[in-house]
Amino acid sequence: MESALSVLMTPTDSESLLDRAYSDAVERVDAVDETRARILDAAYEQFCRMGIRRSTMEDVARRAGVSRITVYRRFATKDALVEHVVRREFRRYFDQFLVDIEHARTAADRVVLGFVSSLRAIRRNPLIGGLIAAEPDLVVPSMISDGGQTLATVRQFVAGQLRREQRAGHVSADLDAELVAELMVRVSASFLATPSRIVDLDDDDQLAAVARRFLVPMLTPR
Fold first, then answer.
1. 9-16 — which CB contacts under 8 Å span 24+ positions?
2. Would you state the pLDDT for residue 154?
3. Cα→Cα distances 13→4, 20, 24, 126, 143, Å
4. Whole-number mean pLDDT of the chain?
5. How far is it, in rounded angstroms, from Cα 64 to Cα 49?
6. What is the pLDDT of residue 127?
C-alpha cells in the first residue's frame, strides 16, 4: 500500500504527479486511446469499491472487459496504473476549481469559493477522500514527507491565480503572492490532514465564513 500511495506525492523525473495533473488541466490534455480510458474508468471503480491494496491488475482487466495483457501494455505496473488514475482525479479537481472560481465576481469571492471548492472536491472524492478517511496513517505522512513537493505544486497553482488578480488590478501589486498562497494552502492542507472539532468540514457555509474571516484579509498587504 505504501508504494501505491507514494505515487500520489513523490516526484518522478523532477516532476510530481500533481505537477502533471495541473499541466493537464491547464492545457486541456485529453486521452485519445479509448481502451486506455476504459481501463482507467474500470480501475477507478475497482479502487473505490475494493481499495487499492485489495485490487489486482486482473480485477481491473475483468471490470474493463479486456485481457490482463492489454492492461499491462498500457500500464507496466500496478503503481503506474494507480498513478494515472489518481492523476486523472487531481486533474478533475483542478478543472472544477477553475470552473468554480469563474462564478465569483470579486477576488475575495474567488478566494472563498476556491477554499470551499478545494476541501469539498478532495474530501468528497470517492478515491482521494476515501484514502484520506480510510488510511490517514499512510496518506497524511506522504503529504508532508515529500520535501514539500506536494504543497509547493498546489502553492504554485494558487500563486498563479493571485498573480492573475494582480495583473487585473483586483488586488494590490504589493501583495506577496507566493507567501499568501503558501499560507492559504497550508491552512487547507491542515484541515484535510487533521479534521477539526470546531469547524464542520461538511458545512460549506461554515467553511466560507472561515475563509472570509481569515483568508480574505490576506489579500490586503499591510
1. 9/142, 9/143, 9/146, 9/149, 9/150, 10/142, 10/146, 10/149, 11/146, 11/147, 11/149, 16/146, 16/149, 16/150, 16/153
2. 80
3. 17, 11, 17, 28, 18
4. 81
5. 14
6. 81
Residue 161 has pLDDT above 70, yes or no: yes
Q: DSSP code of 214?
A: I
In the chain, what is the straight-line distance between the N-terminal and C-terminal CA atoms, in Å? 46
Q: Is 51 left (phi over 0), alpha (psi -120 to 50) or beta?
A: left
Looking at residue 11, its amino acid is: P
Q: What is the pLDDT of residues 93-131, one digit of tens each?
A: 777 777 878 878 999 999 999 999 888 888 888 887 777
Domains with residue ranges and CATH for the chain: 2-219 (1.10.357.10)
The residue whose grid cell reads 469563474 is 102
CA–CA distance, 95 with 100 (Å, rounded to integer): 9
